[in-house]
Specification:
Blueprint (H helix, E strand, L loop, with lengths): L1 E6 L13 E3 L5 E5 L9 E6 L4 E7 H5 L11 E2 L5 E4 L19 E6 L4 E7 L5 E8 L4 E7 L3 E6 L5 E6 L11 E2 L5 E5 L3 E6 L4 E5 L27 E7 L4 E6 L4 E6 L5 E6 L18 E2 L3 E4 L3 E3 L6 E5 L2 E6 L5 E6 L1 E2 L2 E12 L2 E9 L9 H5 L2 E2 L2 E11 L1
C-alpha cells in the first residue's frame, strides 16, 4: 500500500472526528472535525487531492451562532450537488458528567459551487444528530438522534422536517443507517434488533431478536456514559449494495461481518473482519471505517477500543482489511505506515478515485502542550502523543 498521512495539527481547536467524511463530484474530499474544548465548534474542511492542500471552510458557530461540537454524520452529495450533514453536541473534554445545554442538531448544506452554507433547521429540539442517510431520488434526508433515538425525515426541496418515530434503546443508538433502492431506511437497535422505515406506507417496523445474541460485555468506562455509550448488541456500521440489493455491516459485539438480503431479510454471518493475531472480540470495539464497492469491502479495525484520547487497551496499530464479496475471502494488507508514522485508529472512511481516505489518530513526534491540562490530554493516547490526521491509502 502507498500511504500518506496528513496531520491536522495546524487546526488547534479540533481533537477528533467521527464519520464526517464525504466525496463530491468536484473531485475534492470534504470532512468535519470535532472539538471537545468548551465553547468551540466543529469545523468543515476541504482537501484537494490534486494539490494535497487542506482548507478550513467554516466553523459551525460562525453559521449558527452557537456551539455545535461535532459533525458526527457522513457528508452526502445530493441531486443538487450540495453536500448535506448534521450537527451534534460534544461533552466538555469528553466527560459525560459535564452537562450540555444544547438547542438541537441542524441539518446543513454546503454548496461547493458558490461556497454558500444553508441551514435547514433543527431536526429535534435538544437532540444531537448522530447519523444520516440520503435518498437521492426523493431528496429526503433521514436522521437518527441522541439521546432520544428520534428517526426524522428532512425534505430538501421544502426544507421541512418531520418525526417518523422513536427507536427503542437501552442507552445506545446505532451509528449508521442506510437506504435501499426502494427507499426503505434500515437501522439497528438494542438488543439485537433491526428497524425498517418504509416511506411507501409511512410505517416503522421493528424486527426484534433479528441478530443472534452475543454474550460480550460493553465497553465499561467513565467516559462512556450519556450519549457516549456504545452498546454491543447492535450493528456498528452498514453499507447498501445496490447490485445485490443487500446490506453489509459489522456487528458491534463480535466484529463479525454480516449480510442482509433486503428482499427476504435473510441474514448471513461471516467471520470477524480483523487480522490474525488481533485481540479477542471482547477486547475489540469496531470502528466506523467500513466502505464498499460492488466487489469488495474495505475496513480499518483497531486492535482494542479506539476513541482518540479515550482509547483503551490498544495492542497494535491499525491494519487494512479487504473482504471479497464473490469469494468470501478476507485479506490483511498490513499496517498503515508513512515514513515510520502509524495509525492508532480511525473513525471515518470514504473511497475516491481508487484511494481510501480515513480520518483518525496517527502517531505524532511531539505532544501538543496546552495551557489547560485537560486540553493537553485530548492529544495523547495513554501518554503517547497523537495527531488528528487525514490519511490517504492508494489501493
Amino acid at each position: 500500500m502507498n500511504s500518506k498521512i496528513f496531520p491536522l495539527d495546524a487546526y488547534k481547536n479540533f481533537d477528533s472526528a467521527y464519520w464526517g467524511l464525504g466525496t463530491c463530484s468536484d473531485g475534492n474530499i470534504y470532512f468535519g472535525l470535532c472539538s471537545h474544548i468548551p465553547g468551540k465548534s466543529a469545523g468543515f474542511f476541504r482537501f484537494d487531492p490534486k494539490t494535497d492542500k487542506t482548507e478550513c471552510l467554516f466553523n459551525i458557530d460562525e453559521i449558527l451562532g452557537t456551539a455545535h461540537g461535532k459533525i458526527h454524520t457522513p457528508i452526502l452529495e445530493a441531486y443538487d450537488q450540495k453536500l448535506y450533514f448534521g450537527t451534534h453536541f460534544a461533552y466538555p473534554y469528553g466527560n459525560p458528567s459535564n452537562q450540555v445545554d444544547y438547542e438541537g442538531g441542524h441539518v446543513m448544506a454546503y454548496d461547493p459551487a458558490t461556497d454558500q452554507v444553508d441551514d435547514l433547521g433543527i431536526v429535534s429540539e435538544g437532540e444531537g444528530i448522530l447519523t444520516i442517510a440520503l435518498n437521492k431520488e426523493s431528496g429526503k434526508i433521514y436522521s437518527l438522534t441522541v439521546p432520544g433515538g428520534v428517526l426524522a425525515e428532512t425534505d430538501i426541496s421544502s426544507r421541512k422536517s418531520r418525526r417518523l418515530g422513536v427507536i427503542p434503546s437501552k442507552g445506545s443508538i446505532c451509528r449508521t443507517i442506510t437506504v435501499d433502492r426502494a427507499g426503505k431506511v434500515y437501522g439497528s437497535f438494542e438488543p439485537n434488533g433491526l428497524f425498517i422505515y418504509d416511506p411507501s406506507t409511512d410505517k416503522l417496523q421493528f424486527e426484534e431478536n433479528f441478530f443472534p445474541e452475543e454474550q460480550i460485555e460493553e465497553w465499561d468506562d467513565a467516559t462512556r456514559g450519556g450519549v457516549n455509550k456504545i452498546g454491543r448488541n447492535l450493528w456498528r456500521c452498514v453499507n447498501y449494495d445496490e447490485q445485490r440489493n443487500s446490506l453489509y455491516g459489522i456487528y458491534a459485539a463480535s466484529s463479525r461481518l454480516f449480510k442482509i438480503d433486503c428482499e427476504t431479510l435473510e441474514l448471513e454471518i461471516y467471520d470477524q473482519l480483523t487480522p490474525a493475531g488481533f485481540a479477542s472480540a471482547e477486547a475489540v470495539y469496531p470502528t466506523l471505517t467500513m466502505v464498499s464497492d460492488s466487489k469488495k469491502i474495505i475496513y480499518a479495525p483497531a486492535d482494542g477500543m479506539f476513541d482518540y484520547c479515550r482509547s483503551d487497551n490498544l495492542k497494535r496499530f491499525t491494519e487494512i482489511m479487504v473482504f471479497d464479496k464473490e469469494s468470501g475471502e478476507k485479506t490483511s494488507f498490513g499496517e498503515i505506515d508513512d515514513d515510520g508514522l502509524r495509525i492508532f485508529g480511525a473513525a471515518g472512511a470514504v473511497l475516491s478515485d481508487e484511494c481510501l481516505y480515513l480520518l483518525g489518530a496517527s502517531e505524532a513526534k511531539v505532544l501538543q502542550q496546552r495551557s489547560v491540562d485537560d486540553e493537553t490530554k485530548l492529544f495523547q493516547i495513554k501518554g503517547d502523543p497523537m495527531s488528528l490526521s487525514l490519511i490517504r491509502i492508494k489501493m
